[in-house]
Amino acid sequence: MTFLVHRWTGVLMCVLMALWFVSGIVMLFVGYPKLTPPERMAGLPALSASGCCVDVSAALAQSRDPAAVKGIVLTSIGGRPHYVLAEGDGSRVAVDAVDGTRLAAGPGQALASARAFLHGAPARYMGFIEEDRWTHSRSLGAHRPLHVVEMGDAAATRLYLSSATGQVVLDAPRAERLWNFVGAWLHWLYMFRKQPTDPVWSWTVIVLSSIGVVSALAGALNGIWRWRFAGTYKSGSKSPFREACLRWHHILGLSFGALLLAWIFSGLMSMNPLGVFDAKGPRPDLAAFEGGSAASLRLPVRASQAVALLAAQGFRASELEWRVLGGQPYILARDGLARTRLVVSEYGGYAVRERWPEPVLLAAAPRLLAQPMVRSETLHGYDAYYYQRQEQSMYGADDKRLPVLRAVFDDPGRTWVHLDLYTGQVESSLDSSERVGRWLFNFLHSWDLPAMLDAPWWREAALILLCIGGVLLSATAVVLGARRLRKSATKIATR
C-alpha cells in the first residue's frame, strides 16, 4: 500500500517538486518585487525648512473625519512636499503641504511622481490596474487601483503608484520580473492567485503541499524498507533495483529524502493551514501603547521648525511622521538612507534624539496587554526570534535594528513583543503558537538561524547543493512517472 501511495502521488507531484527546487535556487538571489525602506527613501528629496509647510491642522481639515485620522506623514510626492493622512477606515489622503489643497492623484501626477522617483528617466503611463502578478501584497490595499508607469531607465523599471496619494508603492525592474517567472512567482504558484486574499489559491497550495508531504514520507519509508543495511542483494547492491533510473531514485531518495520531506512540510506550514499558528489570545493594543492619536495629541512644533532643528544636528530629513508614545507626542524623522531621528519635547523646548531611553519604552510597554509584563531584556545581538533577513527574502523589507527591547507578558500565549528603540514602535509580536511556526516554517524552509545568516556564502552554497540533489531526485521521479503513465495508457488502449 505504501509503495502504491508513493508511486501515484509521485506521478502527480514529481514535476511540481522539481520546479519548487529550481525556483527555490532562484529565490536565494532574486526575491518577489517589493519596495524596501532604503529604496523608498532614496527616491525622496530632503525637505526644505523654507517655503514649507502649512500647519498640520490645515492638512487635517481635508480629512473626512479629522478626529479619526490614524497617521500623519510629511513626505514628497512628485518632488513636492505633501502630508499623507491615514484615515480611520484605512484609506489614504494626500494634501499639498505648500497650499493645503487635496491632491488629485491622476495619471499626470503618477507620471510626475515616477519621474521624481527615478530622476531623469523617461516615463510612459500604462494605465490603471487593480492587481497583477506582482501586486498581490495586502499592504497595497489602501492604494488600489494602482497606476502603472514604465520607466526608460537602464533597468527598464516598472513603477506602481497609489491612486490615492500618487506615491510610488512598488518598483519592479525588468530583470527582477523575468527571474520571478522561474523564482518566487513560480514557487508560490501565483499563477493561481487572483486577489490579495484568495482562498482558492491558498487551498490549492495547501492540498498540493499535503500530497507532497504524503509522497515524500511514503517514499522515505519505502526506501528504508528496501535498503539492505546488512548484506546485499544478489546483484551485489544494497538497492534491489537493477534498472539505472530506479536505482538512482532509490539512492537519491535515501540521500535527500529527509530534506525533501522537511522542505515540503515547511512549505505546507507556511500557509498556516487551518490557522494553526494564529495567535491564541488578544493582540497587543497599539492604541493603548501610544496613549493617544497623532491627530489629537501632536507635538506643537511646525514642520519647518522641526526640519531646521534636525538640519542643525546634521540630519537632512526627507520625511516626518507625527506619532505618540505612552501619551507623549513626538516626530519620527527619516532621511534618504532610511536612518531615523526623534524630535521630542524636552525642558520646555525641543530636542533631537537618536533613540528612546529604555525607561520610556518600559513605562509604555505594560499598556500593550491586559496581563502583566513579567520581564524585559535588551537584545544587542540577533537571536532565533529577532533577526534580519537579506533584501531578496520575503522579509527583506523588515528593518530589524539593534539594540531592541523585548517585553515578555504573562498572557495565555506568553507573548513576546519587540520594541524598536529608534522609532518607539512595535517591531514584532510573537506568542507561543507563532514561535512554534517560526521553527516549523521559517527554520525548516530557509535555514535562517543568525549563525547561518552570518555566513551567507556557506549557507547559500549548501542550500544550492541540496536543492540540486532535490532536482535530481525529482528528475528521476519525472522519468519514472512518465514511464508509468505511458505503461498505464498502453494497458488501457489494448483492452
The radius of gyration is: 27 Å
Shape: elongated
Q: How far apart, in Å, are the first and last alpha carbons?
A: 25 Å
Averaged pLDDT, please? 92
Strand content: 15-25%
Low-confidence stretches: none
How many DSSP helices?
14
User: What multimeric state do the chains show?
Assistant: single chain
Spatial strand arrangement across the major sheet: 3-2-1-8-9-10-11
The helix content, as a percent range, equals 25-40%
Q: SSE order in H/E notation?
A: HHHEEEHEEEEHHHHHHEEEEHEEEEHHH
Biggest pleated-sheet summary: 7 strands, antiparallel
Count the beta strands.
Answer: 15
Class inferred from helices and paired strands: alpha+beta
Write the layout of secondary structure elements.
Blueprint: H1 2-27, H2 37-42, H3 56-60, E1 71-77, E2 80-86, E3 92-96, H4 107-117, E4 123-129, E5 146-151, E6 158-162, E7 168-172, H5 174-180, H6 184-187, H7 199-226, H8 244-269, H9 286-290, H10 303-312, E8 317-325, E9 328-335, E10 340-346, E11 349-353, H11 358-364, E12 373-379, E13 404-409, E14 416-420, E15 426-430, H12 432-446, H13 450-453, H14 456-493
Antiparallel strand pairs: 1-2, 1-8, 2-3, 4-5, 5-6, 6-7, 8-9, 9-10, 10-11, 12-13, 13-14, 14-15
Structure description:
It is a single chain. The chain is of the alpha+beta class and 495 residues long. Helix content is 39%, strand content 19%. The chain has helices at 2-27, 37-42, 56-60, 107-117, 174-180, 184-187, 199-226, 244-269, 286-290, 303-312, 358-364, 432-446, 450-453, 456-493; strands at 71-77, 80-86, 92-96, 123-129, 146-151, 158-162, 168-172, 317-325, 328-335, 340-346, 349-353, 373-379, 404-409, 416-420, 426-430. Strands 3-2-1-8-9-10-11 form a seven-stranded antiparallel sheet. The protein has a four-stranded antiparallel sheet with strand order 4-5-6-7. Strands 12-13-14-15 form a four-stranded antiparallel sheet. A hairpin with a 2-residue loop joins strand 8 (317-325) and strand 9. Helix 1 packs across helix 7 and helix 7 crosses helix 8. The mean pLDDT is 92.
